[in-house]
Amino acid sequence: MSTGTAPLVDQQGTRHEKGLSKGSVGLLGSVVIGVSTIAPAYTLSGALGPTAAAVGTHLPAILLVGFVPMLLVAMGYRQLNRAMPDSGTTFTWVSKAFGPWIGWMGSWGLLAATILVLSNLAGIAVDFFYLALAQLTGNEAIAELTRNVPVNVATCLAFVALAAWISYRGMEATKVVQYVLVVFQLLVLLWFAAAAFGHVAGGTAFDGLAVRAEWFNPFGVETFSAFAAGVSLSVFIYWGWDVVLTLNEESKDSTTGPGRSAIATILVIVALYLAVSLAVLSYAGVGAAELGLGNSDIQENVFAALAGPVMGPFAILMSLAVLSSSAASLQSTMISPARTMLAMGHYGALPAKYARITSRFQSPGYATIAAAVIASVFYAVMRAVSENVLWDTITTLGMMVCFYYGVTALACVWYFRREAFRTGKGFLTKFLAPLLGGILLLVFFVQTSYDSMDPEYGSGSSIGGVGLVFVLGVGMLLLGVAVMLVQYRRNPSFFRERFETTELPVVD
Predict the structure, then answer these.
(1) C-alpha–C-alpha distance, residues 149 and 50, integer Å
(2) 397, 404 in Cβ contact below 8 A?
(3) Using one digit for the tens of pLDDT, what is the confidence trace for 373-404?
(4) Handedness of CA 190, 191, 192, 194 (dihedral sign)
(5) Is 224 exposed, middle or buried (CB count within 10 Å of its CB: 0-12, 13-18, 19+)?
(6) What pTM did the predictor assign?
(7) How many CB atoms lie within 10 A of CB 223?
């Protein structure tokens, strides 16, 4: 087992392998896992309402604006992966570029984001599990079980345990589950979009708006704060594509395959999001009445409100799609924190036990269990405190994503600073694209952090007169600093040295 600052490739060209299953994931499987982690059905159900509330009919424009930095950052990730294919991704790359302290905090941003989203995924899965049971049995009282805190938490812990068990069994088990669940949710989302447009064409839609060119104009958003809030939420709905990079040591082509998978995943998602968001906007509008996206009563779960009117007796399929989406993502999202902690344990940034690999399944067993336990405890505590706390974690998640994506993108710029100007393609992919993407996301991080200090931001909850979203976000980062200092005392050698890696050949 490797500890300290072991290089990815030593001076003799020997790779420091972690014991993961090599060649177990191809391009299609990687894209499926990427789409699964993003969880389009679950994500759209929870994010369309708040985003529309922030930017109105400019919802499609904000989705496209949120897509741009994701694409720019993905180009930087692709280049870093080609030079250093390592499951630690943000941790490894930022540590190499900026040193172990910043690398540790960058990886903490990734870990915090995944723990936050695991909690929300579990919560949504519970909601739609009991909603689907109510629809199948015709007993509406069953849907109310999700409001019973002990029942809710117990069900959530069962879902997390099942997801962890599948992840523990390695990539082969993961792929089988993901193919089925991802295909099902994509088919239902496309069905929903087609049905919504059908209502608009037939004059039976709730609002019945015609698609307009101005919806795609991001400059029509009234204030920069509203723009930043909308982008922060749109960043959240794209988040998760980087999971395909953490699979690089298990991919069939570790240097180039994961980068292609990341780009493909983002393109598939943006096309799907535009289709569904236009359908919802055209059908429901942004008013505050009944089915309008401005109605705060339906914003936390748009599809639960719209599936019946849009799909009629087939609304049960949407409940099952969101359930399968959140369940699939709950399982695939564990891939990223588990492999990040695996790398951190491997290089000495966390205790060596996090680097343990199961001999039978060649998976990061200890790190997977640790991620599941942390997410379960966080959910149980937050759910017991307030439902609003769980909702505010979505906005906090957007802040964490902007932070660690932005830092990783700038790590690409710094790492390739000497060779990026040798060719036009190198300048675009190693310098300009990640520089713009990183700066944009960090600007959104700062703006959202500032705005979230307002008690009215997010759900309107506050602590000591300061917005709960800000408290959660800053609290997460400060907790990261504290854990980092504890680890420094345990293993100061990691923080006193720099990664020394022999670059793999990179061809533009």
Answers:
(1) 25
(2) no
(3) 998 888 888 777 766 666 677 778 878 888 99
(4) positive
(5) exposed
(6) 0.84
(7) 10
